[in-house]
Amino acid sequence: MIRKLLCVFSVCAAVTVVCSSSEAGTKKSYLPPLPYETYFAKYRADRAVLKFNDFSGKINAKRIKKLLRSGRVLGDRVLLDNNLAVYFPEGYIVSSTMRLDQFRPKKGISAKTIKSTADIEVNPDYALVNLMDEHLGEVCAEITTTDQVKASVRKSRDGILSLVKQTSGRFDYLVGEQSEAFEITSALKPSYLTTDHEIQRALSKCI
Question: What is the value of pTM for the model shown?
Answer without folding.
Answer: 0.82
